[in-house]
Amino acid sequence: MHTAMTTRTIGHRRVGVIGLGAMPMSVAGHMPDEAQSIRTIHAALDAGITLIDTADAYTPSHEDVGHNERLVARALSLWGGDSGDVLIATKGGHTRTPDGWDVDGSPTYLRQACDRSLKTLGVDSIGLYQHHRPDPKVPYEETIGALKELHDAGKIELAGISNADPEQIRIAHGILGERLVSVQNEYSPRFRSSEPEIDVCAELGLAFLPWSPLGGIGRTGELSERNAAFTEIAVARGVSPQQVCLAWELARSPVVIPIPGASRPETIADSAAAATLELTPEELALLG
Q1: 51 close to 87: Cβ distance less than 8 angstroms
Q2: pLDDT digits over 196-234, tens only?
Q3: Is residue 207 part of a domain?
Q4: What is the CATH number of the domain that holds 41?
Q5: Active-site positions?
Q6: Are 51 and 8 in contact (CB under 8 A)?
Q7: Disulfide engineering: 127 pairs with which of 87, 139, 218, 244, CB 3.0-4.6 Å?
Q8: Cβ(90)–Cβ(56) under 8 Å?
Q9: How far, in Å, CA of 45 to CA of 107, rounded?
């Protein structure tokens, strides 16, 4: 039976079991104004969320790289609480172009991206720096070697990888050792293909950070439409289907720390409440 806990571990850092995915605040067509985004980040912090995930590529266009990082940094600077316990996770290696998205896993680019993120976030060392997406043009070992160099140079406190398969996780762990603390892959009721990666993370003692844990931007309503069990349990518990979804993911493994995206204070406050929602074995069996 899953026991509800309010914190989990990423490396040597203790964070809340629910994080904030800040991407929706910087995606063209969905992004709110800056004031609302800052209120959303403050609502997350006030609700006890201590992990905020961003990336240099979260921006409305290729001409504004670092938009989301700047937004997160500004929100933290304006927050009245103690930001010392907040772990900011950012990513590099997924690039923006006039035509959309691309990847660059070369060590030279990753070093440049990290230096840019350091400046954008206004920090001397990035709390958690993650390689965003594998580049088929660059041997994975070379990319991960660059992460090792960044850590050893003191530019990053903790290292992570994203969108990696089990073999790549093991390669990264072999190169980085204890420097590697997390894997961030897509995982939700509609996208369960990362089950093997969760198991590898549990085996190696790595945190698993599901991105789009509620199904992605504009898809949260599908929890009710595609799987009536989430709604059934939500109604019985007097909570939202989104809370049930996050609690279901937390029950999957003690290494899982979902990072739901949000662009409104109300939605992240609701998601944060999933930290104390404990599902019964019968409910988990119903959800599959």
Answers
A1: yes
A2: 999 999 999 999 999 999 997 556 566 766 678 999 999
A3: yes
A4: 3.20.20.100
A5: 58
A6: no
A7: 87
A8: yes
A9: 34
Distance CA 178, CA 205 (A): 9
Residue 112's Cβ-side half-sphere holds a number of Cα atoms within 13 Å equal to 10
Q: Is residue 282 part of a domain?
A: no
| Residue linked to tokens 């072999």 | 174
The H or E element that residue 73 is part of is helix 67-78
3-state secondary structure of 157: strand
Q: Is residue 231 assigned to a domain?
A: no
Taken in order 170, 172, 175, 178, is the CA torsion positive or negative?
Answer: negative
| C-alpha neighbours within 13 Å on the C-beta side of residue 54 | 26
Q: Which residues contact 209 (CB under 8 A, 6 or more apart)?
A: 19, 53, 89, 160, 182, 183, 184, 185, 257, 258, 259
The count of other CB atoms within 10 Å of the CB of residue 77 is: 10
Q: Which two tokens stand for residue 269?
A: 């406050």
- Is residue 280 situated within a structural domain? no
pTM: 0.95
- Residue for token pair 């060392």: 125
Provide the domain count of the chain: 1
Q: Which residues of 21-48 are buried (b: 16+ CB within 10 A; e: fewer)?
A: bbbbbbbeeebbeeeebbbbbbbbbebb
Contacts of residue 152, Cβ cutoff 8 Å, sequence gap at least 6: none
Dump the DSSP string for 51-70. Answer: EEE--TT-SSSGGGTTHHHH
Domain that holds residue 260: 7-219+252-264
Per-residue model confidence as pLDDT tens digits over 95-145: 999 988 999 999 999 999 999 999 999 999 999 999 999 999 999 999 999
